[in-house]
């Protein structure tokens, strides 16, 4: 059934073309996650048919040192791990991918992102229906490269290394594992230049990348979160200052900020205005790829997806947009 879904999605959408402005890089956020459960191979196939510039996989390690594509280091939000392995929950109430082998993880079924049994996005793919697997990084790449060949495309990948400090504490070198896979599939070859970005919230990982892989030409993106999210021990507020961005420019090629960091509401005029972050980043020679554009989660004041997209591209002048809807703007 899985293969049937995968093939039918890809074939039915071969004629689709991205409607977005060619002024901006389009990154399919976790695949076509607005339509299918995030990070599944089916979501990759659908995203590929929409012709984005890149497709994003988030990377987490297993107990037996395999890289899997999963947004969280825990499993219960997007899989049925609670029912398959009820006794494997840690004392903090979570099931961690790193506690399972790949063989065990392949027994799980991926579902739409949910809290408890309630889908986060109620209008998206029905929660708990159909059958989807947790893919490996290799499977993800092989599908994208295979579709690149069969569809005569050159769509890149944009992997994010998740929580490297957590993996390091568990004795796992997730950066090394990631680079081994990227090298295996040719992303370090000269002809792959511009076909892969490497991103992370933790600046120490990006600095380590530059130290250990000084000859690599893979560009890196420093993701920027709200400090309350505790994505790392570093201050993201400081990172967005002129001084902070100057420091980022010493080890990264760009930043990946949350959309509210580049545009803010002007209550008096009932509209939005630029925050200045993009201009400061561009002054330091940094690219700006913002996250996450969602047609079904628009900010206040903005009623049409096209208005948000055009504001980000034409007014804020971002260089790239992560989106759950990689077909771009058609309305």
Describe the protein's architecture and organization.
The chain is an alpha/beta fold and 331 residues long. It has one domain: TIM Barrel (Alpha-Beta Barrel), CATH 3.20.20. Helices cover 30% and strands 16% of the residues. The protein is built from 12 helices and 15 strands. The strands form 4 sheets. An 8-stranded parallel β-sheet has the order 7-2-1-15-14-11-10-9. Strands 4-3-8 form a 3-stranded mixed β-sheet, with helices on one face. Helix 2 links the parallel strand 1 and strand 2. Helix 1 packs parallel to helix 2 and helix 2 (41-49) packs parallel to helix 5 (137-150). The longest helix is centred in the middle third of the chain and has 14 residues, at 137-150. The chain starts with a helix and ends in an 8-residue tail after the last strand.
Explain briefly what this protein structure is.
This protein is of the alpha/beta class and 331 residues long. The chain has twelve helices and 15 strands. It has helices spanning 2-12, 41-49, 81-84, 102-105, 137-150, 164-169, 174-184, 203-212, 236-239, 242-248, 277-283, 305-316, and strands at 25-28, 54-55, 58-61, 67-69, 114-115, 118-119, 156-157, 160-161, 198-200, 220-224, 254-257, 263-266, 271-274, 287-293, 320-323.
Overall average pLDDT: 93
At the third CATH level, what is the topology name?
TIM Barrel
CATH architecture, please? Alpha-Beta Barrel
How many E strands? Answer: 15
Task: State the secondary-structure class.
Answer: alpha/beta
Strand residue percentage: 15-25%
Number of structural domains: 1
- Level-1 CATH class name: Alpha Beta
Distance between the termini: 33 Å
